[in-house]
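So, can you check this one?
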Amino acid sequence: MESKAVSQADRVALVTGAGSGIGRATANRLLDDGFRVVVAGRRMEPLAVLVEEARARGREALAVTVDVRDAASVEALFATIEATYGRLDVLFNNAGINAPAIPMDELDVAQWQNVIDTNVTGVFLCARAAFALMRRQSPQGGRIINNGSISAHAPRPFTAPYTASKHAVLGLTKSIALDGRAFNIVCSQIDIGNALTELSARMQKGVLQANGTVAPEPMVDARHVADAVGYIAGLPLSANVLNMTVMASNMPFVGRG
């Protein structure tokens, strides 16, 4: 039986890493869908701009700084959400980083640790806090959407930290989806390939391929990723998209490297 639904006007979403790129595009999509959106990131300036732009469109957004690597910072973020809105319906676990594309023996342990702390521990800390709030709120339940990557399935050359982190996110997604059943909490993962953002624009000029060549790669507009997240976020909790891949159609993911 479908649980009591939250009214559309009362739905609250959180987007981490919301200051730019996919996070910003997704926050705007969720705002347009009628969510009250908490936009979180390490720098307040781009978040504040997003909030002002949302208000100009008659939408409601709240900016909160957070370092997802830090448990106390994440706890403070979720305390603010609960104090302000009393609930959370959707978490888009988007914050993430990469390491330099160099042979693993040239990577500092600190570079490895920073990727793991952000992409794995950060996803866990935010999912953990969201799970707790969704479990105790009324109506109970909610949706967690993790930003995975096609690297959760196949690596690029010299991306051991990032690839390992995204494989870990895939395991977290499946575990949350299983453990959330008793509490009406569902979990999805969106695996993105070559979304065009400020950080990925360089890929149009050339990316190291598995055969050792360097070749430009097709890109896809980040708004298509935002639209995919918006679709998942709008589903009733009785339905879920466990995994979705959104990618540039002709990028070198399927097929031989």
Q: What stands out?
A: Residues 50 and 246 are 24 Å apart (CA to CA).
